[in-house]
Every structure is written in structure tokens, then in C-alpha cells.
Specification:
The complex is a heterodimer.
Chain A (H helix, E strand, L loop, with lengths): L1 H33 L3 H14 L5 H14 L5 H21 L4 H17 L1 H22 L4 H17 L5 H16 L12 H11 L1
Chain B lengths: L1 H15 L4 E9 L9 E4 L5 E3 L5 E6 L4 E7 L6 E6 L6 E5 L15 E5 L9 H6 L7 H5 L24 E5 L2 E3 L21 E7 L13 E7 L7 E7 L2 E10 L2 E11 L1 H6 L5 E19 L2 E20 L2 E23 L4 E18 L2 E21 L2 E19 L6 E6 L2 E11 L4 E12 L4 E15 L2 E12 L3 H4 L8 E14 L2 E18 L10 E18 L6 E15 L15 E11 L4 E10 L3 E2 L10 E2 L3 E13 L2 E8 L9 E4 L11 E4 L6 E11 L11
Parallel strand pairs in B: 1-7, 9-12
Antiparallel strand pairs in B: 1-4, 2-3, 2-5, 5-6, 8-11, 9-10, 11-12, 13-14, 13-39, 14-15, 15-16, 16-17, 17-18, 18-19, 19-20, 20-21, 21-22, 21-23, 23-24, 24-25, 25-26, 26-27, 27-28, 28-29, 29-30, 30-31, 31-32, 32-35, 33-34, 35-36, 36-39, 37-38
The chains are: A mainly alpha, B mainly beta.
């Protein structure tokens, strides 16, 4: 019996060292991102994804950093390079985790970055894809706050463009804030962003 | 017990306390410039680092033995070094630039691309439908690009001194045998295909790939949408008819159908034109596209059916009562293709297209029935050796079975026709020597069973990037095409006609602005000549025709300098002469304008939710033969002018009101003159101006889209 416990202890200690390596890496990557070092953060997320072959999160975050820094980028060459890279990361994440609403939201944001860059060129061709991704994500995860928030954000943009009422979409933002309040990520490293943005968007609504 | 703990401890220690190896080096580009921010790591481990401001990297690892060191940086090809870890010190890694990135040189000679993903886009898919003069016809939009002639009464593409037959159209790389709907003599035709089924278009005015044959002047490549984004229903109500479309998606499969009914009777009733219609144009058409995505490929089945008819009496100088013309056309087209990836290096494409076309024509008292059955089969492969070297090769087979039945009051029905089968193969290599220098070289072989002729056609293009935003391209190619059915149905003892293209292109491209200048020389050989007024049975034919075309095409597009305005200007200078058909000597053909100018502008008015557009075309007069003077094609008609306007108003995100007027100023254009066959009493030949059926044409449509996505609309169909 004691023998067994010892073996277990040894095994656990091995697995916890591996675990902490992952945790340490993820924490460091988030720190780098927070310190405004996106290239270093992406590189680290990529290294983690190379070691954690069955985990979609590092690729997801590598994509998110590239997408986030692409909003506002005016250099088309740079934008194309970053978003193509982000697409590769998202493809890698999707290969590990299919029908994942969090990845769908990120894919929709990637398309949105193009629309934000040049609405006249990309608005018509990509808006259909964005809407389809959000409806699919909403069908899978109706209570995911990021799905609710991102979709409402997109709908508000469309309604503002056509000079229509945004009230019903602002309600969706409120709904998302309620969902954020009770949302529990599966692990500390699962997606948990969006609450602050949603609160900001709600202020804009009023 | 103690022993076990010791073993356990030993395990832990051995896990933590492996000897550490240092990996270090420097990352630069091909020129030796340091790369800051490159990701250097051992694959499958956490061990790695980002290069510092001097391009240096240093990290330690506990791994041993042969491992893969991966070095990657955005816009560069990832480099992998597989050696023993002990050898990974003081490395100098040179990364090669990724030739797929946006600033790589492109083979541009002769080619205009329309699509979101092309690197340099002259036209966007939306332009087809928002160009005022195009009226939703892709062909109409391409007519605003340089290299095309203005032959307003015809409507087809006439490229760089070439006849309309010299341009071939392909859908998903498969030939479209009868791309145009038939129309009466002075009315322009339209393409048969609705623009919204396509998301990529390439228009080449010369020097194109060895993959495409049987075209002397030009190819137009249309690619259907791979994956519709959503289910929807489109309803259109127009002054000339109605249309209905629907798209359904089931997982990996989707089906789009589209039907339209056009009847010009009400319009002609309100606005009579120069034709005396007995039965105004009536047409019904339907298209369906089925797509299925597989893990490694995509299957597309496209089919289209259309039927049209009209009956008209047209003015004619030789017949005081006019010429009576009646036409019934039916056309069925099928195009199926599979495109797939076989493994990391190989991809495959196979396709089949089939056309059944029938025209029943009655002219005065002659009855003509044309039946054409044509097919195209193709199989091609692509071998990817690296991003910098790819090899394409393929084989194809064209089948044409054409039959004509003629009868009139004096001649009992006779049948004649031909079978024109052609086999072809091609191979072509795409090479990038660097981001600055690229080359495409290929060769095409064709054997015509009908003419018993084998031809070999080399094609080469080169592109070199001269500065950050500019490049030059060169192209050379030989092109062969069998004589058209109007000749082959009477005589098959001929050779293929041929051209040689020499093209020099300069392109400047920066932030929403494109400037493109292209000069070319084109030589025609073995053109078909005959010795009568019209091609017929008793005419003598030979291949002694020849000709040339040379010119300069300029294009400028800018959508950045003025807010909410997007405009382009095309100018073509064309000097061409040929001796073919029944020409008496080398002359400028009657479908050629020496100068062509197009200006297209679009203005988005935010407050009105409207896009207004204009397009203006100027073309110098085309030649005609005046028999009262000496010579052949001895005079020129007056220049052509047309200003078209359109207005798309978004009533709501899904409802659009669309108005357009072609030739809004009502310019009285004259396309040429028809002279009497016999002189009048004074010994002069009388003439009649060839004018369009109507000077102006206006169009009002209401388009409504019903979908879950409340913002999608048919703006891209207009």
C-alpha cells in the first residue's frame, strides 16, 4: 500500500512539474502581452503550443494577440502578414478543438479586423461569414458572454452604419454583462476576456 | 521503504537535474540584416527564446540528441534545423523571405485580377455590379479596362485588335462554349452568367498561361464561390422582368439556385426603338450550383439553362420592307469539377464541361437551324516543391460537334457541319528566385483531329520588382486557334490561325492607388481568307491572312485620395491592321477604335445611404468602306460618346432601389454605315447609318434579400 502511495506521489510530482511548466509559460506570455511586447508574447504562445500538442489555448492566444494588434494597423502588408499568421494559429486551434464557440468568436474578430481596415472592400464579402460564425456560436453556447457580447457589438456596428435603432442590441450587451458576472472559466487559462469591453460598450449605448 | 523513497527522489532529481546545453546564434535575412523578434525554439519543448535587438538568441535545454530547432518570423519562411543539440552553438541562421507575402513581385504582364485575395486588384468583384455602364454583366465591367475596343452594338470582348471570337471564357478553368446570349443585329449581347456566383475573375489581354488554349487574343477566367456564407432568398423586380434566387446550406453541402425572366415587351411598348418588334425579346434562364466540401477537396457542379426568343423586322438599305428576323435559342451548360489536395506536395484538378446549344433562325425566307454539342475534359496536377518552385501540368480534350440545317424557298433542307476535336497537354513552372524576381515558363502542345495539325506553343513571363511599390514584367507567347464555326462548317481544309504576343508591363501600386502601363506587339499568322462577299460552300479558302497589332494601355485607379470616391481611368492606343476574310488588302478592321478612353467613378453618400456612379466612354470612330470612294475600309465613322449614370439607394439594409441610365446625354452614336448593293440612278451607292436600336436605355429595379443576417443585400448583384 505504502509502496503504491509512494509511486503515486512520484507520478504526481512528475505531472505537476509538467503542469507548472505550462502554467509558468502561460503566465509569462500573458505578462509579456501586458507589458506591450506582443511579438514576444506570440512567440511564447507558439512555443507552448509546440509542446502542448493537444491544447488549443496557446494557439488561440497567439491568434488573439495578432488580431488585437491588427485593429488600427494601416499598413496593408503588415496587416496581411499578421492576419495570415493569426489565421494559421486559429486553424491549428480548430484542428485540436472542433466546434468551439470561443474559436468561432476569434475567427469572427479576425474577419472584423479586415472590415475595420477597409469596409468598402471587405464589408460585403466578409459580413456574411461573421454573422454565420456568431449564429453558429450562439447556437452552441447561448450563455457564453463573449459570444453574446461580440455578436451584439457587431450588430451595433451594422445598425449604426445603416442609421437604425441599436436598442435591442444594447439589451444584448446588458445580457452579456449578466453572463460575464456568473461566467466561470474551465481553467485559469481558458478565455475570460471581454467584461471590461462590454461595460464600455454599454456606456456608449447610453 | 527507504529504498523506495530513494528511488522516488532519484527520479525527481533526474527529472530536474539533467545537464543543460546552451543553444545560441544569430538570425539574419538573406542580405545579412539582423532579424529582431524571430521565434527560436526546440520543437515539442518549452525551450526557446525571441531574438534580441542584435538578432541574437541564447537559451538552455535539458534535451539531448538530435532535435529540431525551428526559427520563424512573420513574412519569412520558417527554417528548421535538425541536428544534434551539441552542434547548436554559434549558429548563423539566414531566413528566406516568404514569397507568398503581399510585397512579392507578381507576374503582371497582360493580366487584370479581380478578387479579394489577389495581391494587386484592378477590379473588385463588386465593381461588376456597381459600374454604371455594366448593368450587372461581368463582360460590361471588363470593357472599362484598357486593351478592349468599344463595339457598342456587339457587346462582346474585342481585345487588342482581335475579333470577339479570339477571347475564350472559362468557368472554374473549364471552357464555356457559348458564353453570350443571341440578340438582333444592332443590340449588344450580354454574358449568360449572373455575376453573384463568382468571387474571383482574371482578365488577361495577352501572354497568358500555357494552361489556356484555343484563344488568339485573350482569356477571361471566372471562379465560382467556394462556400456561400449564408442561407438566403433574393427577390428582384425590374422594369424588364423579375428574378428569384435561393441558397441553402447543409453542413459541408450547399445549393444555390437562381432563375430570371426577362421580357422587353412593356419597355419597348413605352419606349419604341428603331426595330419593328413583332415579338420583343423574351428570355428565361436558370442556374444552379451545388458544392460539397470534403476533407481534402471541393466538388462543384454548375448547370445553367436558358431559352430566349424574339421576332423583329429591321431596316435595311437593300430591302425597302426591311429584313425579317426570327430567333429561338436554347442553351444548356454543365460544368463539374473536383479540386483536391493529394498530400503535402501534390494537388489535383479534374473537370468536365458540356454545352448543348440550339439556334433556330429565320431570315427573310431562309430557315437555319444550328446545333452545337461541345465538351471539354481536363485533368491537371500541381507539384509543390517549395514556396519558390511549383510545377503544373495537365491534359485536356475538346469535343465540338456542329451541325447546320439550311432550307429556303428554292433549296430543300440540307445538312452540313463538322466535328472539331482537339487534344492538348501543357506543363508550366512557377519560379521565384527571390521576392524580387519571378518567372513562369511553360509549353503547350495541341493536336487538332479535324485539321490534322499539331502545334507547340511556348509561353514565358518574367517579373522584376524595381522598387518598393513598382515592378516591370515581360511576357512572350505563341497562341493557336482553329477557325470559327462560320468557316469550318463550309471548309475544313485549313490550318489553325496563330498569334505571337510580346508584352512589356510597368506597374505601380501603393495604398489604394494603381498605375499600370503596358505596351505590346502582336503578330497574326495563318488567318483565314476567302474570295467572296460571304463565307459559303462555293467560296475558296486559304490560310494566307496575316496582320499585326501594337499599342499602349494605361490604367489608373485611386480610391484613397478623395474620401468616399473611387475612380479609375483607362486609355488604350491601338494600331492594328490585318488582311483576312474577304479583305482586299491589309486594313484596320471595322471593330477597331484607335483611341479608347473610359472613366468610371463611384461616390458613396453616407447621409443618403446611396452609391452614385458614372461611367464615361469615348472611342474614336471605326472604319467602314464607302463604295463611292476608292479603297477598302477607307473612311471612319464619327467618335463614340456615352455617359452612363446609376444610383443605388439602400431603403433598408436588405432593400435596395436601383436606377440606371445608359447614355444619359442621348449622344447620337453611329457605329458605321450600310451601303446599297447597287448604285442609284446617279451612279452613287446610297447609305444608311448603323445606329443602336435605342440611343439611351434606362433601368429601375427593386431588390430584396431575406436572410437571418439582416444586413446582407443584393448590392453585389446589381
Amino acid at each position: 500500500m505504502k509502496k503504491l502511495i509512494t509511486i503515486l506521489v512520484v507520478l504526481i510530482s512528475i505531472s505537476t512539474t509538467a503542469q507548472s511548466k505550462y502554467e509558468k509559460g502561460m503566465q509569462e506570455a500573458f505578462q509579456l502581452w501586458g507589458q506591450n511586447k506582443p511579438t514576444e508574447a506570440i512567440n511564447l504562445f507558439e512555443r507552448i503550443s509546440s509542446a502542448e500538442k493537444d491544447n488549443w489555448l496557446p494557439s488561440y492566444y497567439a491568434a488573439q494577440v495578432n488580431i488585437t494588434r491588427s485593429f488600427g494597423e494601416r499598413d496593408k502588408e503588415k496587416l496581411t502578414a499578421q492576419l495570415n499568421k493569426a489565421q494559421e494559429s486559429l486553424d491549428a486551434a480548430t484542428a485540436i478543438s472542433k466546434n468551439n464557440p470561443e474559436i468561432m468568436v476569434m475567427q469572427a474578430l479576425l474577419h472584423t479586423a479586415w472590415v475595420a481596415y477597409d469596409g468598402a472592400t471587405y464589408g460585403m464579402t466578409l459580413s456574411g461569414k461573421v454573422i454565420r460564425l456568431y449564429s453558429k456560436a450562439l447556437a452552441i453556447a447561448p450563455n457564453n458572454p463573449r459570444v453574446m457580447y461580440s455578436k451584439a457589438r457587431w450588430d451595433i456596428g451594422g445598425a449604426q452604419f445603416f442609421g437604425q435603432d441599436t436598442a435591442s442590441f444594447c439589451k444584448d450587451i446588458e445580457k452579456s454583462i449578466n453572463l460575464f458576472a456568473t461566467f466561470e472559466p474551465k481553467t485559469p487559462f481558458h478565455p475570460n476576456w471581454g467584461k471590461d469591453q462590454a461595460e464600455g460598450a454599454l456606456i456608449d449605448c447610453k | 521503504m527507504v529504498r523506495i523513497i530513494l528511488i522516488g527522489l532519484f527520479c525527481l532529481v533526474s527529472l530536474l537535474g539533467f545537464s543543460q546545453t546552451i543553444i545560441n546564434g544569430k538570425v539574419t535575412d538573406e542580405k545579412g540584416e539582423v532579424i529582431v523578434g524571430a521565434n527560436v525554439f526546440l520543437e515539442g519543448t518549452y525551450d526557446g527564446v525571441t531574438t534580441d535587438f542584435d538578432g541574437n538568441f541564447t537559451f538552455t535545454t535539458t534535451d539531448e540528441g538530435v532535435q529540431t530547432l525551428s526559427i520563424s518570423y512573420i513574412s519569412y519562411d520558417t527554417f528548421k534545423l535538425i541536428v544534434d543539440i551539441s552542434k547548436m552553438t554559434d549558429l548563423i541562421i539566414k531566413l528566406k523571405e516568404d514569397v507568398n507575402s503581399l510585397d512579392t513581385v507578381v507576374i503582371a504582364a497582360g493580366t487584370f485580377k479581380a478578387g479579394d485575395n489577389s495581391k494587386v486588384t484592378a477590379l473588385k468583384p463588386l465593381d461588376v455590379v456597381t459600374t454604371a455602364s455594366a448593368l450587372g454583366d461581368p463582360i460590361g465591367a471588363f470593357q472599362t479596362l484598357p486593351g478592349t475596343s468599344t463595339v457598342s452594338e456587339d457587346g462582346r470582348l474585342f481585345v487588342r485588335g482581335g475579333d470577339a471570337d479570339e477571347t475564350q471564357i472559362f468557368i472554374d478553368d473549364m471552357r464555356v462554349h457559348t458564353p453570350y446570349s443571341p440578340t438582333p443585329n444592332n443590340t449588344p449581347t450580354r454574358g449568360r452568367f449572373s455575376p453573384f456566383l463568382f468571387d474571383g475573375m482574371t482578365f488577361s489581354t495577352g501572354g497568358y498561361s500555357a494552361e489556356y488554349g484555343q484563344a488568339l487574343s485573350s482569356v477571361l477566367l471566372l471562379n465560382t464561390v467556394n462556400e456561400p456564407t449564408q442561407e438566403k432568398t433574393d427577390i428582384g423586380i425590374m422594369t424588364v422582368g423579375a428574378s428569384l434566387g435561393n441558397t441553402q446550406i447543409w453542413g459541408d453541402k450547399s445549393l444555390s439556385i437562381n432563375a430570371s425572366y426577362i421580357n422587353l415587351a412593356p419597355y419597348n411598348g413605352l419606349f419604341p426603338d428603331r426595330n419593328d418588334w413583332k415579338k420583343p425579346y423574351e428570355g428565361i434562364s436558370g442556374e444552379a450550383v451545388y458544392r460539397k466540401k470534403y476533407e481534402n477537396g471541393i466538388l462543384k457542379l454548375y448547370s445553367a439553362f436558358s431559352s430566349s426568343n424574339f421576332e423583329v423586322t429591321q431596316e435595311d438599305i437593300n430591302y425597302s420592307e426591311g429584313v425579317h428576323f426570327k430567333l429561338k435559342n436554347s442553351n444548356a451548360y454543365f460544368n463539374g469539377s473536383y479540386r483536391g489536395v493529394l498530400d503535402d506536395n501534390w494537388s489535383v484538378f479534374s473537370g468536365l464541361s458540356y454545352t448543348h446549344a440550339k439556334n433556330s433562325i429565320k431570315v427573310i425566307d431562309s430557315d437555319i437551324i444550328d446545333t452545337e454539342n461541345s465538351a471539354h475534359l481536363k485533368l491537371k496536377f500541381k507539384r509543390h516543391f517549395s514556396n519558390r518552385f511549383k510545377l503544373n501540368f495537365g491534359a485536356e480534350y475538346f469535343i465540338t460537334d456542329f451541325n447546320e440545317n439550311y432550307s429556303d424557298t428554292n433549296i430543300a433542307a440540307i445538312d452540313y457541319g463538322f466535328k472539331n476535336n482537339i487534344s492538348a497537354f501543357y506543363t508550366e513552372a512557377d519560379m521565384f528566385f527571390s521576392k524580387k524576381l519571378a518567372m513562369k515558363a511553360g509549353v503547350r502542345g495541341e493536336y487538332s483531329e479535324l485539321l490534322k495539325d499539331f502545334s507547340i506553343a511556348p509561353r514565358v513571363s518574367l517579373a522584376y520588382k524595381t522598387a518598393n511599390n513598382s515592378q516591370v514584367s515581360l511576357a512572350y507567347g505563341d497562341f493557336y486557334q482553329n477557325p470559327t464555326s462560320t468557316i469550318l462548317k463550309f471548309n475544313q481544309d485549313l490550318k489553325p490561325q496563330s498569334t505571337q504576343h510580346y508584352i512589356l508591363n510597368y506597374q505601380y501600386n501603393k495604398e489604394g492607388k494603381i498605375f499600370r502601363a503596358e505596351t505590346y506587339y502582336k503578330k497574326y499568322n495563318n488567318l483565314v481568307k476567302y474570295d467572296a462577299d460571304f463565307a459559303s460552300f462555293d467560296t475558296n479558302y486559304n490560310n494566307k491572312g496575316f496582320g499585326y497589332a501594337k499599342g499602349l494601355d494605361l490604367f489608373w485607379r485611386d480610391n484613397k485620395s478623395i474620401k468616399n470616391i473611387d475612380y479609375w481611368v483607362s486609355y488604350s492606343y491601338l494600331d492594328t491592321k490585318r488582311d483576312y476574310k474577304n479583305y482586299q488588302n491589309q486594313a484596320q478592321p471595322n471593330f477597331v477604335n484607335k483611341h479608347n478612353l473610359s472613366v468610371v467613378g463611384k461616390y458613396w453618400i453616407e447621409d443618403w445611404k446611396s452609391q452614385v456612379g458614372l461611367s464615361y466612354t469615348f472611342a474614336s470612330g471605326r472604319p467602314y468602306t464607302n463604295p463611292n470612294e476608292v479603297g477598302f475600309l477607307n473612311q471612319k465613322a464619327k467618335p463614340y460618346n456615352s455617359l452612363s449614370l446609376n444610383w443605388a439607394y439602400l431603403l433598408s439594409p436588405q432593400k435596395i432601389l436601383y436606377l440606371s441610365v445608359n447614355n444619359a446625354l442621348g449622344s447620337k452614336n453611329i457605329n458605321g454605315y450600310q451601303y446599297a448593293n447597287t448604285p442609284n440612278m446617279n451612279g452613287d451607292f446610297d447609305r444608311r447609318a448603323l445606329r443602336p436600336a435605342a440611343d439611351s436605355f434606362f433601368f429601375i429595379g427593386f431588390f430584396w434579400t431575406i436572410s437571418d443576417n439582416k444586413t446582407d443585400n443584393q448590392l453585389d448583384n446589381l
